[in-house]
Structures are given as structure tokens and as C-alpha cells.
Write a structure and sequence with these properties.
Elements (H helix, E strand, L loop, with lengths): L6 H5 L17 H11 L13 H9 L22 H13 L4 H14 L8 E4 L2 E4 L1
Antiparallel strand pairs: 1-2
Helix pairs in contact: 4-5
């Protein structure tokens, strides 16, 4: 097979511009990217009724300059075992703790499958009624 170039690559800078939007000066980009990487660590728990949000805000303020404001958006996940990113974070945390990778993957799959809704083999549900085949 030949090596094909994406048609957009031919046109960049000639007839089209980049689609990426830069919100910062290019000279500050590396510092801002490093800062963003430190800040965007997803937290699985923020405590009961958000009690740990203030300590989280204080820890984040250590990484950023004093002239910047931070806003923390908390998204409540009712069933953490059905969220793929949270299960992936659980597996990553176990791998960082030097747990065997097969065991970490197995536990992640078990968590996700415990709360999964599997289709019935001998029937289906429609409009609130259960039908059997």
C-alpha cells in the first residue's frame, strides 16, 4: 500500500488555517501545559457533601500563581462502577501500587460487570410490559 497523506495536511497554511484554538501566548504554553497536567487529576471522592473541596482548592492553589482564580466543578456520579473512566483510574491506581496486572484488570472487569444490565435471553421488555419468546 502506498502512503497517503491527509488532504488537510496539504492545505494547512495555504488555503486553510489550523483548527486548533490557542488561548494562551505560545511562549507560556509549556508552563501552562505542565500546570494543567498537575491540576487535572480526577478525584474519586470529595467527601460527604463536598467536605474536602476546600482542601482540594488549597492544594491546587499551591501549583498556580496567586493572580489566577480557580473554579472547581463537582460532578456527582451515582454509580461509580458503571463509569469507564473511574474504573480505568482504579486499575491505574492498582498498577501504581504494584498489584499484578492480571488481577487489576480482573477486578476492574468484575466491578463493571456487577452493575451491568445484561439482556434477557428468553424475553424482552417494551413499554413497561415483559414479553417472553
Amino acid at each position: 500500500m502506498g502512503q497517503k497523506t491527509h488532504p488537510l495536511g496539504f492545505r494547512l497554511g495555504i488555503t486553510q488555517e489550523h483548527r486548533a484554538a490557542w488561548y494562551a501566548d505560545f511562549k507560556q504554553y509549556s508552563n501552562l501545559l505542565e500546570e494543567d497536567d498537575k491540576i487535572r487529576r480526577p478525584g474519586v471522592l470529595v467527601g460527604d457533601n463536598g467536605s474536602k473541596i476546600k482542601t482540594l482548592a488549597a492544594n491546587i492553589k499551591k501549583f498556580i500563581p496567586n493572580d489566577r482564580q480557580i473554579t472547581i466543578n463537582v460532578i456527582e456520579v451515582e454509580n461509580a462502577n458503571s463509569n469507564a473512566s473511574l474504573i480505568a483510574d482504579l486499575v491505574v491506581q492498582q498498577l501504581e501500587d504494584r498489584v499484578a496486572f492480571r488481577r487489576a484488570i480482573r477486578e476492574g472487569l468484575k466491578c463493571s460487570q456487577d452493575n451491568a444490565k445484561w439482556p434477557e435471553a428468553n424475553g424482552f421488555e417494551k413499554d413497561g410490559f415483559r414479553y417472553k419468546r
